[in-house]
Structures are given as structure tokens and as C-alpha cells.
Amino acid sequence: MKLTEWVECRLARLAPPWMIGEIRISPGYLLTHRADAPEDPGLQLLSDWESLLELARFDAAGRFRPLRGAPGLRKGWRRGPLSIDELVADLQLLYPGAVAVWAAWEEERLVSTPFSETAGRQTGLYEGTRRLPADDLSLLVEEICTRGCLRRPLWYSFERPSGDRGEIPLLCPEVCHYFLHKARSRAAARKAA
Ligand code: SF4
């Protein structure tokens, strides 16, 4: 089954509205910020893909968002109604990989990769992440993943999502590049100290 077909079938079995991260998906596949009321006539229509990309890349103050899973998406817009293909493409842009990971999770074929394994594959500038002390890793997870990201780091703590009705889980099976970059800086600072 194609991913789009899987999503369509899965959503049909969940009561709307469906939520993923900071996004609300209303019937007809209308996207808004979850804090906005979809029927608000003041919402700005994002009619093209470029507007959505800008929404994903920059916060309300125009600052670049290096982590797509970070909270802080701008409010005050709407997009759609969309086809199922457009919905999946939009979610891929907003939360890359999240829908495929969700499908793998539900079908019990999701495999998470521990930090030690990802770090062990690093070479060059990132090689130092292999020697990051466990305490530093724990602090980074708290600072970057728990407080700065809406995804759940299954690679660190395998905790089942709550499965609230209509809530699509945002899962992280392997450490992201942003985290690795921060881990590299922390390991380098340790070495220099
Ligand atoms: S590693 Fe942490 S910061 Fe990066 S996507 Fe996963 S949960 Fe978010």
C-alpha cells in the first residue's frame, strides 16, 4: 500500500480534527496552526508551496528555524482543502519523515538507532561525538529534544506515545543532524577544557 493510501485509511479511523505537532488537520484536509480556529475568516490563505516552505523555515520574527520539529510555527494562516497527496507532501515539508515513521510505528516495524551506534558511524569533525560522556548526552537530550523539539527521541528513551484520539505521534527514531552538531560542539568543548 502506498503511504498516501495508508494515511487516508488511518485518518478515516480516527475522529477529526487530527493533530500533528503544532498543526491541526480539519476534515477536507484543511491545515491551520493548532492554536487557531479553522473557521476564523482572518486567517491568511497559503495557496502555494513556497509560502508553506517559508512558514516552515522562518518563525514569526523572521528567524531561521534550524529544527523543523521545534515549537514556534507562526500562527494566523490556513492551507487547503488539500488532496491526500498534497496533505502528505505538506506534512513532509513541515515535519520531514514524520508520516513514514508514524506508519512504521503503527505497523510495528519501526527500528530506533541508539546514539552510540549513530555516533560510532561518525568520522572527521563529528568523530568526537563518540566520546561524549553519558551525563552530557543526558543534558543535551533535556535541552534540545525535551525542551526544544516536539518529537519524541525513541533513540534515547523508548516511551510509547499516549495515543490520544486524533493525535498523530511525532517520533524520532534516530538522532538528527542538528543534535549531532550540538553534540560535536559539546564534545569539542570537553576536549579543550
Ligand atoms: S534528535 Fe532530538 S532534536 Fe533532533 S529531531 Fe530527534 S527529538 Fe528532535
UniProtKB/TrEMBL annotation:
Coiled-coil regions listed in the entry: none
InterPro entries: DR2241_Fer4 (IPR041346), DR2241_middle (IPR041181)
The organism of origin for this protein: Methylacidimicrobium cyclopophantes
Protein name: Uncharacterized protein
DR2241 4Fe-4S iron-sulfur cluster binding domain sequence ranges: 108-184
Gene3D superfamilies: 3.30.1360.190, 3.30.70.2320
Domain DR2241 stabilising: 29-103
